[in-house]
Specification:
It contains 14 helices and seven strands. It is α/β, with parallel strands linked by helices. It folds into three domains: 104 residues, Conserved hypothetical protein from pyrococcus furiosus pfu- 392566-001, ParB domain; 104 residues, Arc Repressor Mutant, subunit A, CATH 1.10.10.2830; 44 residues, no CATH class.
Amino acid sequence: MNKRPRRLKDLLKEESTPTPTKTREEKVLEKEAVSLVDVNLVSPNPFQPRRFFDVEKMVELTESIKEHGIFQPLVLKEVKDGYLIVAGERRFRAAKQLGHQTVPAIIRDYDQSQLTELSLIENLQREDLTPIEEAEAYQMLQRAMSLTHQELAFKVSKSRSYVTNVLGLLNLPDEVKELLNKNAISMGHARVLSKLDDPKRIKELAERIVLENLSVRQIETLARSETKTHVQQQKTKPKFYLAYEQQLKKQFGFPVSVSDKKLTIRYKGEEDLEKLINLLLK
């Protein structure tokens, strides 16, 4: 029987109180002692979900470290060629920018599963992740631990509907994701657009949001109209067209539309295109 996933607060409680392997005193000295680590031996974590670092906040942090030093040590995992950051990448970046040769750090021993989980959850606690970064973090955590939406929601202490809506943002075209990251469109706009199937139409509506300053309610009205039109078109299609669409969608894993003398396969990005081409060339 699968164990129920642990909540975020339970995981952090466990992570902050290491289980002793020797005596309690030896464990504290060995694992919780703060060390000064050469910055050239420290590498960012590939499971870091944050892609954008707020320039203003980074300047503030850098100035604070310049004046007061690093109050909170980084958390690192020792690897073959040095150390991997588990928590504290912003502090690490600021220290390097200031020319620091070393950073204070606590070295902890995590297996790959723990490293992935803790790195993602540490960042999900922060409020400065963009919606897309948050969605990517959820996706990585879900894949790493083979979680359902409900299990993932329980682990990060969110509602299932919230997690599902955030994950849905990953279906948006890259150009629209960029608009969301830059706050050119809101989370509400993006959530509505993510329900649509046609990437071209999604981009057109996103451009209208920016140019015409459309509200979320206006976009919802337009999206309902899009859905209604699509349903009407599906009703008028010959049944064998619909059967082909379902067969091809199952074969390729992408939305497919069959109409008179036209076959359309919709993909979301370069990675999907490469996958599709490989399937077609088999």
